[in-house]
Design goal:
alpha/beta, 7 helices, Rossmann fold, 15% strand, seven-stranded parallel sheet, globular
């Protein structure tokens, strides 16, 4: 039976790959983001069962509008996020520091909290929620890493809440993923080689590496997996 899937931040990169994975198995997919032209191109590329919706996952009115056009959400993927600037403010500029931290927390933590809360009543028993985190949460990487660590912690809470209704909630935590807009043109010389050298498999991650895990976590085979962080980083961050 076809499911209704919502993927936030799905115009490019990981979100687009996740949307493609669900569309390929016959699900009805709503993709959200801030840029209509990017969303429309992705929807056209992925097929008629993919619907673009302009929705900034930090904008209360746009989130409410997204909720109002849906009657059911079987899978919610909170992918929207990203670093709110790579330039760390000077320690003597408190206003800039506050804005920097607030922007990162809003984009990477509050976006997932607000979207999940807004769509909560549309999630039926057997639904799945997946949040896209980052291994930055475990590597001490400033405001962005702290926001993703907060996401992982909040996931434990919301997994308990949703679990009472037979709904799972997990975090998929990528390492360095190539072919996304995350870094833009801001990577220094040697950055790619250094990130690949950290892995055990000798290659960067691809958006499809994440999409396969997200699709599995939303499958019937993963109904007893919840409250977890699943690391997908090629061994750059090893756990036991």
């Amino acid at each position: 039976m076809s499911r209704t899937v919502v993927v936030t931040g799905a115009g490019t990169g990981i979100g687009r790959a996740v949307a493609a994975a669900f569309a390929a198995t016959g699900d009805r997919v709503f993709i959200t983001g801030r840029r209509l032209e990017v969303l429309e191109k992705t929807a056209n590329d992925l097929g008629s069962d993919v619907t673009p919706v302009v929705c900034d996952a930090t904008d209360l009115d746009q989130i409410a509008a997204l909720r109002d056009r849906l009657d059911r959400v079987d899978v919610l993927v909170n992918n929207a996020g990203g670093t709110a600037g790579f330039q760390y403010p000077g320690s003597d500029d408190l206003a800039a520091m506050a804005a920097y931290w607030q922007a990162n927390l809003s984009a990477n933590l509050l976006s997932a909290v607000l979207t999940t809360t807004a769509l909560d009543k549309l999630l039926p028993e057997g639904a799945a929620v997946v949040h896209i985190g980052s291994f930055a949460a475990d590597r001490g990487q400033g405001a962005y890493g702290a926001a993703k660590a907060g996401l992982a912690s909040w996931n434990i809470f919301i997994a308990k809440v949703l679990g009472a209704r037979g709904i799972t909630s997990n975090v998929v935590s990528p390492g360095y993923i190539e072919a996304t807009e995350f870094f833009g043109q801001r990577t220094p010389p040697g950055f790619h080689e250094a990130r690949v050298a950290e892995t055990m498999v000798g290659r960067p991650g691809q958006p499809e590496d994440l999409a396969g895990i997200v699709h599995f976590l939303a499958s019937p085979q993963a109904r007893h997996i919840t409250g977890q962080v699943v690391h997908v980083n090629g061994g750059a961050l090893a756990t036991r």
